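Hey, resending since the last one bounced:
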Amino acid sequence: MRLAAFIREQVRDGKLAPGGPLPSIAVLRREQGHSRQTAGKAMRVLAEEGLIYRVPGLGYYVSCDVPAEPESSSP
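The structure tokens again:
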């Protein structure tokens, strides 16, 4: 999912700080060109990964304890 990968990269690169808010779904839809359903699904996937969390009525935030990236096994 491209939108989830985009947000994941923003967090990993430090462009979205731990504890900080994510752009709203409306903003993500407008800037990234995705449907509301796709944006919502991306947020749910990232929340399940522990990368972000939702505060009802306020939006999504970057987790303070961002999980480490899985290590790639290179020969």
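Helices lie at 2-12, 25-32, 36-49.

Sorry for the duplicate.
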